[in-house]
Amino acid sequence: MKQSATDKNTIIRRLRTGSIGICVFYFLLTIFYAERGIGMLPNLKPEAELEIYRYETISQTVTYFLMAAAMLLAAILFLQIARKGMPFQDQHVRTVCIIGVLFLIIAVIPAPAALLLAKLNGVDTAMFLSPLISISALLEGFLMLFIAQILHYGTMLQLESDETL
Amino acid sequence: MKEQAMSKNTAIEKLKSGSLGIGVLCLIVSAVNLMIILANSVRSGLFTMQGFTIERYSAIRQLISSGFLTVIMLLAALMFFRIAKDGMPFTAKNSRTVRTIGILFLVNAVIPSVSAAGIIGTFKGVGGLVNPSALIEGLLFLFIAHIIRYGAMLQQESDETL
């Protein structure tokens, strides 16, 4: 029993150390995507050669900002794990769920919404080149929701362990 | 206690069905990935190219990297099928599988570039030999392996208590 507690403490310490590094990585990714999104803003001006490119740019800008939000949530998640050393908590399950939902939104909303907006404004949409659905974002979204289920199960085990102690 | 057991059983059922779907997806992705890269290699004439060209280097590197990715997806599929069978994500076996995936990503960060440069006979003009994104993914999976190992300890405690 004593050895098991020592092993657990060792793992928790390693999780805390590893989480700090991964948290920094995701913060950098947040900055990267936010910068990309901000960088696209000047392209929204009406001087674009083809009006439809403005709407494609809207779609890409929204996608970058949503990705930045997802990366920020991931960074906060790993920061919490680094602080407490407990990966299996209800708030972490909720965070991963939200990240999954964000990916699903990225997969299906920006491009169709931009296309609809263009059509409503009477713009010729024949040259709209962006794919309407991002398959990779869709798969990542479902994967995140599945990981949230795994974490949820882990949370139950953690609760049992805490109650036993 | 009874309600808790029922919630756990519900969670396990959801994990089983979800794992099956993801396992099948991993298999499909690995098969499609391999077919596409082989088709591209044949179409680009990779197996008949000679000497040093950047195209040959890129094609060889991509082929080796895809081989690694195919193995990674197969390992992931096996792991998800195992979870679909017994409903237990936190086992020592799964922790080892995820660690192996992490190591394969780390190897994939370096080996394809080095091997391709070795095959074409020069390291000059081939650019960076390390793939940073594969390196980071490798470290992330090694970290996830630790989380699964921690979960396996909790699972063992839970089973011993019962």
Q: Please write the string of helix (H) and strand (E) elements of chain A.
A: HHHHH
Helix proportion range of chain B: over 70%
How is the main sheet of chain B built?
none
Mean of the pLDDT scores of chain B? 84
End-to-end separation of chain B: 11 Å
Rg of chain B (C-alpha, Å):
20 Å
Q: Give the biggest sheet of chain A.
A: none
Helix-strand string of chain B:
HHHH
Structural overview:
The complex is a heterodimer of chains A (165) and B (162). Chain A has one domain (2-164). Chain A has five helices and no strands. Chain A has helices at residues 2-40, 51-84, 90-108, 110-120, 135-164. In chain A, helix 2 (51-84) packs antiparallel against helix 4 (110-120) and helix 3 (90-108) runs antiparallel to helix 5 (135-164). Chain B is mainly alpha-helical and 162 residues long. Chain B has one domain. Chain B has four helices and no strands. Chain B has helices at 2-43, 54-86, 92-120, 132-161. Chain B is elongated, with a radius of gyration of 20 Å. In chain B, 33% of the residues are buried. The mean pLDDT of chain B is 84. The A-B interface holds A 4, 7-8, 11-12, 14-15, 18-19, 21-22, 25, 87-88, 139, 142-143, 146, 149-150, 152-154, 156-158, 160-161, 164 and B 4, 7-8, 11-12, 14-15, 18-19, 22, 25, 89-90, 136, 139-140, 142-143, 146-147, 149-151, 153-155, 157-158, 161.
Give descriptors for this structure.
heterodimer; A: elongated; B: 162 residues; mainly alpha
Secondary structure topology:
The complex is a heterodimer of chains A (165) and B (162).
Chain A (H helix, E strand, L loop, with lengths): L1 H39 L10 H34 L5 H19 L1 H11 L14 H30 L1
Helix pairs in contact in A: 1-2, 2-3, 2-4, 3-5
Chain B lengths: L1 H42 L10 H33 L5 H29 L11 H30 L1
Helix pairs in contact in B: 1-2, 2-3, 3-4
Quick structural gist:
With 165 residues, chain A is mainly α. Chain A is built from 5 helices and no strands. In chain A, helix 1 (2-40) packs antiparallel against helix 2 (51-84), helix 2 packs antiparallel against helix 3 and helix 2 (51-84) packs antiparallel against helix 4.
